[in-house]
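Example record used in the benchmark description.
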Amino acid sequence: MERFFPLTHAWAHKLYNHQTGGAAWFLLVELDRLVHEPGGSNPVMLSTKILESTGLPARKASRALHQLEIAGAIEVERRRGRCPVVSLLYYETVKTA
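Model output (structure tokens):
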């Protein structure tokens, strides 16, 4: 069975209104996948290995994280020399059946 990405119309409009680019949309879907895979959790530690598995170059992923932060979809905890920890905030407003 194929999984889907639960995003409300309101959040889609919010991301669109903040001019969130394609890489940011893709990264948001990947973060959601990581939350839902076995052993996954929210927040997600975005390690180099995980980032490489998405196929996004580091600079593009960094810009995507910034765009998603500005739109209010995620919160990123950054500490020098450590992997960023990403909390999916949009997820709190999405209700699943």
